[in-house]
Amino acid sequence: TTCNPTTVQDDVVSWLERRGAQAYAWRDMSAGEWSESFDRALAWRPTHLCEMGADLTTRLHQSPNGPQIV
Question: Is 1 part of a structural domain of the chain?
Fold first, then answer.
């Protein structure tokens, strides 16, 4: 998952992880950590994106592989 580092609720992330979700998110992530979260999400090669703000979609279109990975 990716996130807005200013609104992440660490207890919710922990709850999701305990139930098997893979998460790379925590409150107040650095810019580098936030950027890495996009790389990790795209490395998973998702077939669908559902997000607010289009940060991941923008990153996808700026990546060398572009939208063909989705």
Answer: no
Which amino acid would we find at residue 15? Answer: W
DSSP structure class, residue 23: -
The distance in angstroms from the start CA to the end CA of the chain is 16
Residue 20 lies in a domain: yes
Q: Taking the model in full, what pTM does it have? A: 0.75
pLDDT digits (tens, 9 = 90+) for 10-20: 999 999 999 99
Separation CA 17–CA 32 (nearest Å): 22
Could you give the CA distance from residue 41 to residue 60 in angstroms, rounded to a whole number? 10
Residues 17/9, Cβ–Cβ less than 8 Å: no
As for how many domains the chain has, the answer is: 1
